[in-house]
Amino acid sequence: MSDPVEVEPLVVDGQALTIRVCRGSRSAIVAVEGESDSASAHRLGRELRALCAQYTLVVVDCLGLRFLGSTGLTVVLDAHLHAKARGNVLRLVVSTPAVLAVLRVSRMDQDLEVFGTMNDALTT
């Protein structure tokens, strides 16, 4: 993996969403920190779609994500479908109880590839 590239943090009403990307030859790791709500989710979606078009594997590290709203969930699902249509893979690393609850209640944990650790996401 190369050195991380940080996308300019988006601050909305005092809440920030930070996206950091490490790019390799065939895969990318996207570290997301903060809150993904309706104000910040579209930027996350643009980043994920672009990466899913370019890399065979995109792993989204959600360990620093404190909140995933419905719009954020929608853009992650859209990126997953975008990757899948190209024969690529999007995986999530999630351990935050609030984010896990959103995935379970929406049943997106059944559609998305969700892992508890980065090691599991990268070696599966």
From TrEMBL:
Single GO MF descriptor: anti-sigma factor antagonist activity
Domain STAS: 17-124
Xref: CDD domains: STAS_anti-anti-sigma_factors
Top-level taxon of the source organism: Bacteria
Record InterPro entries: MlaB-like_STAS, STAS_dom, STAS_dom_sf
Protein name, entry field: STAS domain-containing protein
